[in-house]
Amino acid sequence: IDRRDATLVLAHVLLAFVALLLGGIAGVLQGLVRGGLITLPSGIGYYQLLTAHGVLMALIFTTYFIIGFMLSGVAKTTGGRLLPLSRKLGWIGYVLMTAGTVIGTIFILLNKATVLYTFYAPMQASPWFYIALVLVVAGSWMSGIAMFHNYRQWKKTNRGKLSPLFAFMAVVTMIMWMVATVGVALEIILQLIPWSFGWVERVNVMLSRTLFWFFGHPLVYFWLLPAYICWYVVIPKVIGGKMFSDALARLSFLLFLLFSIPVGFHHQLMEPGISDFWKYLQVVLTMMVVIPSLMTAFSLFATFERTGREKGARGLFGWFKMLPWKDVRFFAPFMGMLIFIPAGAGGIINASNQVNAVVHNTLWVTGHFHLTVATTVALTFFGITYWLIPSITGRTLTARMHKLGIAQTIIWAVGMFFMSGSMHTAGLFGSPRRTAFTTYQDHPDAVFWMPYHVAMAVGGTILFIGVVLMVYNVVALLRAPKGYTEYPLAEVAETAEQTPRLFERWGVWISLVVILILVAYSVPMMDMVNNPVPGSKPFVTW
Ligand code: HAS
Question: Which DSSP symbol is given to 484?
């Protein structure tokens, strides 16, 4: 891609890894506190560290990486460069996001925003923390508009042609993100900022949580979809094959667009104030959003098997041996896929109302999202980094880097096995999430959980070694010998069916999104506004 775009992409990717390092330090420390292995010097709190860990890793690392990666792919596939307006918007977005990140981090470090990454009211942060979040979201919108602009211009100059798959997927991801962030923007601007400035005395907690989860669930697909871009578009090329089907890939992304938003209630199944019917409806829609992931699994298996057979593999599983096990561009994302099988199954468990009553607010949930976002997504992002950095900086991906990358992936998987495995188990025994070291006055249950908490801390320490090695790898990639690294983009198999034109009729898809949201949310939200907790004010003016 154009050198100027490479600088923009690199700026995003490097800041992502700075956030990963800082978030990793906070993460390992809070894990050691939770396991009772260390006590923090007075002045630093467990919840403060947990907030830093969650915000820096789940919100900042991911958002920077995703935007950097998607800007690179959009530039690459829509003419090799970002248009001048897109590049400008990309930089404005970067500056806004960075201003937000710096302000937010300062307020967390000052212990004035110890509200965890979900910032649920009535926990209150300094208004500047919320303003920082608005800046991050506004910045991400700028980059989204930049991607739309390149895509639209490409469509204009290539009338009647099917858009490049990468650009299409980036557009879907950013539309989903923009619709989703409307929820959290309403929460922050109309509720949390006026309340934290003291302009209103109370907030409608039920409504604020609902607006948060309107955003919070599609947020997890905002993390996942860029990983899926890699699985659909990059992995077939890396293994020496072709993409199974362009149409299937596009359809799965469109299904995510439709079904990832009207499902937030599955995070609120145990909350009062939402009637059974609306919870039930959103659980049904949650099961719908599982389908595109199952389609993705099918498509990946098909790609692996076909490529293997083309290379001469025999028998039912002969293709497995043909996969490029020593190539980190494949190995790291593959481990992510493999782990997504139990991780996704855990999600389906969470979404089932009765079982949710067992796992909600326990460490099981923490285990679930460390497998999904912190393993499936993170390992895929790491896998992308190994070719993205050298490819845009004109360097070589050396054999040594492959080895270091594979070692890093194994360390990550082992650390996560211990950490997430014990989180899931302790969660089933009832151990709560988000609680500092406590034996609850030596209650037998809490004493029973303790060995699992120690195993979590051991896993967390191994993962921290993984973070340090990953940061080392990024530096090594920046200093690799000059040369050429491919930006791997797969072609579609000849046998694939034609992609229906309907898939790019954005008016149709966005209208369906709006209809689904209105069906799933309008009645219960009106109920929350009209019947707030006595004395609370939903919005400033009401
Ligand atoms: Fe989740 C809570 C339900 C997916 C993240 N989730 C969370 C939280 C986070 C999170 C961060 O219904 C905590 C929020 C908080 O702080 O409170 N989740 C689901 C469901 C799915 C799901 C149904 N979650 C994700 C993904 C995440 C993520 C993805 C991040 C990226 N989740 C829930 C629910 C809760 C929840 C409840 C609330 C719990 C509570 O009570 O608080 C589904 O999307 C999962 C579908 C996935 C699959 C797997 C498909 C497998 C594939 C891999 C194929 C592998 C291959 C490898 C090809 C069905 C695609 C080849 C292998 C060989 C052997 C060769």
Answer: -
Task: Read off the pLDDT of residues 152-191 as tens digits, 9 standing for 90 and up.
Answer: 999 999 998 999 999 999 999 999 999 999 999 999 999 9
Query: Average of pLDDT values for 503-526?
Result: 94
The reply to whether 81 belongs to the active site is no
pLDDT confidence tier of residue 541, bands split at 50, 70 and 90? very low
* Mean pLDDT calculated for residue range 72-85: 95
Percent of the chain with pLDDT over 70: 98
Catalytic residue among 149, 209, 368, 453: 368
Q: What is the ipTM metric for this complex?
A: 0.97
Eight-state DSSP code of residue 376: I
pLDDT of 542 higher than 50: no
- Over residues 12-17, the mean pLDDT reads 98
301 CB less than 6 Å from ligand 1? yes
How far apart CA 398 and CA 380 sit, in angstroms, is 19
**How many residues make up the chain in this entry?**
542
* Alpha-carbon gap, residue 363 to 428, rounded angstroms: 8
Query: Which of 222, 253, 369, 464 is flagged as catalytic?
Result: 369
Q: Hey, where are the domains in the chain? A: 1-163, 182-238+240-307+506-542, 324-504
Catalytic (active site) residue 370 = yes
Residue 140 CA to residue 153 CA, distance in Å, equals 20
Whether this prediction's pTM lies above 0.90 is answered by yes
Query: Annotated catalytic, 217?
Result: yes
Separation CA 478–CA 301 (nearest Å): 34
For helices 328-351 and 378-393, the axis angle rounded to 10 degrees is: 150
Query: Does the C-beta of 374 come closer than 6 Å to ligand 1?
Result: no
What CA–CA distance (Å, rounded) separates 144 from 43? 40
Cis peptide before 164 (omega within 30 of 0): no
Take atom 47 of ligand 1 and give the residue whose Cα is closest.
344
CA nearest 359: which of 350, 367, 368?
Answer: 350
CATH code of the domain occupying 324-504: 1.20.210.10
**Eight-class DSSP state of 413:** H
Hey, which of 340, 380, 424, 434 would you mutate to test ligand 1's pocket, going by the most ligand atoms within 8 Å of its Cβ?
A: 340
Q: How far is CA 215 from CA 45, 164, 478, in A?
A: 28, 28, 35
Bridge partners (DSSP) listed for residue 482: 395
Mind giving me the DSSP string for 87-154?
Answer: HHHHHHHHHHHHHHHHHHHHHHHTTS--STTTT-TTS---HHHHHHHHHHHHHHHHHHHHHHHHHHHH
Average pLDDT over residues 484-503: 91
Instruction: Determine whether the shortest distance from the Cβ of 319 to ligand 1 is under 6 A.
Output: no
pLDDT, mean of residues 286-297: 96
| 266 flagged as catalytic | no
